[in-house]
Amino acid sequence: AMARHAGPRLPPIVKKLIPALSSAFDSQRVTATAFFAELLNSNVVNDLILLETMMDTMTGRQKDSCLLVRMLALRGLGNIASGSPEKVRKHGPTLLASMVNGMDDKDDPHNLVALEAMSSLSKLLEHLEERDIQSMLLHVAIRIRPFFDSEQPELRRSSIALFGSLSRFGGAEGEVFLEQVLNGLVTLLLHLQDPQPDVVKACKFALRMCGPSMGCEGLRDMFLNHLHQDRGLHFGEFINNVCKHLMQSYPEMLNRLISTNLFYFKSPWVDIRAAAPMFIGFLVLHVEEEHCQQVDLDQLISGE
């Protein structure tokens, strides 16, 4: 409301609040950071030439002892994507470094800072180009991979959606980023059976985005044609056809695909536990005879 109706009065208010960011009291630092974070959601900070000042204050809060302050600072930096989208590329290196630091936060037991970093990075990526993100692409892709199986639905959703957004920038990395897609493929496909609808939507989005980089026209078309955000999916029929294309294009991956699925035999989610053996069954069904020696029958029969 202040951004909309009291723009000219904001500079002195911002000036008065900046000292509160160094207050000895957590509550004052949280309040000031929250105010700045929300203000960055509006282009008024750009109009009033406050953007750089407020950006500096937010980056300066990244090592704050209070987890909530660090989280809100990242939210503010991410809000630049909606408040001043035309400035994102100019400040790209600083913003991206802040998001990577947030994902690597060592004092974040519930991953709240990492979650904010992933959500904010997803917003910023819409305004960046491939060369802006190339240097950190693989680091982020590898860093977020463990969150795909987090017990927290929001962490699963955010990390998977971010992975889908990152795949748009994988062109120059070619084979290197393709390896990340192949490493995450089984997980993304199995989580189409996730109990949380928002996670399922994120998986559909990520698979549609990853399809073009896989070098298999059949898979790309399947992901585009069958993974609609708000439409149901016959998982058995879909995974059968996916396995057919996988064994035609990547037969040498059979053992890796089976091993990853075996890991999900112990998944806490029953629908994913059920999907994993079905996935393996279709892989074995469609593999050519000359590649069958990859299968470790003892491992497969014991399910370990």
TrEMBL record:
Residues 56-302 form the Maestro/Maestro-like HEAT-repeats domain. GO terms for cellular component: cytoplasm. SUPFAM superfamilies: ARM repeat. InterPro entries: ARM-like, ARM-type_fold, HEAT_Maestro, Maestro_heat-like_prot. PANTHER family: MAESTRO HEAT-LIKE REPEAT-CONTAINING PROTEIN FAMILY MEMBER 1 (PTHR23120:SF44), MAESTRO-RELATED HEAT DOMAIN-CONTAINING (PTHR23120). This is MROH1 protein. It comes from Neopipo cinnamomea. The gene is Mroh1_0.
